[in-house]
Write a structure and sequence with these properties.
Structural class: mainly alpha
Distance between the termini: 55 Å
Radius of gyration: 21 Å
Number of helices: 18
Order of helices and strands: HHHHHHHHHHHHHHHHHH
Bound molecules: tryptophan
CATH architecture: Orthogonal Bundle
Largest sheet: none
CATH class: Mainly Alpha
Length: 448
């Protein structure tokens, strides 16, 4: 067999994995979920889950990838023939995410142009009017999707990776600067309190399930992505060190994004808490107001949305890659045919999601609008499920030692006991409980 390429160094691996992890999940999805689910309590739950379930799964996936040297579709089958279906299930998640990820990417593209042309988007109705119209959101959705497809077809991923080494630090700097600007505005103190101080009366299974789904989504866990990256990870480097760096980087960006948006909701809405539950639109309604209030806000706004766009693009490219690689593996068709097939599917389902905000806004699935439904199924149901099953596979079928021996190739594994307890018992049992109760609560069947 041909020798698998490995990343040139540890930094290369971390940057590539972090580039795929950092995206709309951190900048768009995390702040609106935190705002909706009680602020500080969501933050606390998220951090606890990241330190426990998140890191266990991250280490496990990278180790499985490096051990098997295979893509997720084949990796699970190589570990145990009867578990090949788990690889298929994991690979299916990006299939659900891709269409609506590109739709949101289209919203970001639109807002980049709005900032450049100086159109006034700093009103409450601008965004809702925009997404409920028919043609315009679809056009920007196509633009974003076509760029993603072209990158994958022409394989310019390398170039994108190099560019992200420059642009991602810039995004970090701008996010920090915006957070500082926002938290020093009058009226932001109430928002800071809401975001940073946990209110335990808001703790519910629904909150924990939302945080768990967000964690997996944001770190690209439980969908085979980190297995793929792990298969390219050098045998010489420490898995745990790399895993922790990715987790810390990804979480830091999400926390900052919340700090940039949530206090701003308070200072620009005059403390109106209803604004907090606005959901997916939060970033698009609040940030234009922040930019309108800033000196040189138009330039900074344009630069900011451009960087978000870039972060979204690096992620959408890897989502599409993951699907295309899976299809080529499974159906043995050409890369071009696979990419085009996925594009057609993406356009169709993304269009349905977009119209779900406009002419089809009456259509609801289990009480969700179309985009929220796909998001719920993929992130709140499928990801926890795949995460849980991965733990069961490692804990009971191939046994934790299979993973631990891979980790120990590069020195002692300090958290061995913790890892075994987590992967066998704590993680699967808790994820199962959170999943079932969270779903029941989301549908109003359970209320504790
Ligand atoms: N983690 C990415 C983000 O935070 C989103 C994402 C979900 C992703 N699934 C993926 C990225 C698969 C790459 C591959 O935006």
């Amino acid at each position: 067999m041909e020798k698998r390429n490995t990343f040139s160094g540890k930094l290369g691996f971390i940057l590539a994995a972090a580039g795929s992890a950092v995206g709309l999940g951190n900048l768009w999805r995390f702040p609106y979920l935190a705002a909706k689910h009680g602020g500080g309590i969501f933050l606390l739950v998220y951090i606890i889950l990241a330190l426990t379930f998140g890191s266990v799964l991250m280490v496990t996936e990278i180790a499985i990838g490096r051990k098997t040297q295979l893509s997720p579709l084949s990796a699970f089958g190589a570990l145990n023939k009867k578990w090949k279906w788990l690889g298929k299930l994991a690979t299916f998640v990006p299939v659900l995410i891709f269409p609506y990820y590109c739709l949101i990417g289209g919203w970001v593209t639109k807002y980049t142009t709005v900032m450049i042309t100086g159109e006034n988007a700093a009103t409450d109705s601008y965004f809702t009017d925009y997404i409920s119209s028919t043609a315009n959101p679809l056009i920007w959705f196509f633009v974003f999707l076509v760029i993603t497809v072209l990158v994958v077809l022409f394989g310019v991923n390398r170039g994108i990776e190099n560019l992200s080494k420059v642009l991602m630090p810039l995004l970090l700097i701008i996010t920090i600067a915006l957070s500082v600007f926002v938290v020093t505005r009058p009226g932001s103190a109430a928002g800071m309190r809401y975001y940073l101080l946990p209110d335990f009366s808001r703790l519910s299974f629904k909150t924990v399930l939302a945080a768990l789904g967000q964690l997996f989504y944001s770190m690209s866990l439980a969908m085979g992505i980190m297995i793929t990256y792990g298969s390219y990870f050098s045998k010489e480097e420490k898995i745990t060190g790399a895993a922790h760096k990715i987790e810390i980087f990804d979480t830091a960006i999400a926390l900052l994004a919340g700090l940039m948006i949530i206090p701003a909701v308070f200072s620009f809405s005059g403390g109106d808490e209803a604004a907090l539950s606005s959901g997916p639109s939060l970033m698009f309604i609040t940030l234009p107001k922040v930019f309108a209030a800033m000196p040189a806000g138009r330039v900074i706004g344009a630069l900011f949305f451009f960087l978000v766009l870039f972060a979204a693009l690096t992620s959408s490219v890897s989502i599409l890659e993951a699907i295309v690689a899976g299809i080529i593996d499974e159906f043995k068709i050409s890369r071009t045919a696979a990419t085009l097939a996925v594009s057609v599917y993406g356009i169709a389902l993304g269009t349905v999601c977009s119209l779900g905000f406009g002419i089809w806004s009456d259509v609801t699935l289990l009480g969700f609008d179309i985009l929220d439904f796909l998001d719920f199924v993929s992130n709140s149901v499928m990801l926890p499920l795949v995460g849980m099953l991965t733990c069961v596979l490692v804990g009971f079928v191939i046994k934790p030692d299979a993973v631990i021996s891979e980790i120990e190739l590069n020195g002692p594994f300090g958290m061995k006991k913790f890892y075994i307890a987590m992967v066998k018992w704590i993680a699967p049992v808790f994820i199962f409980a959170i999943l079932v109760s969270g779903i029941l609560q989301s549908f109003g069947i359970l209320s504790i």
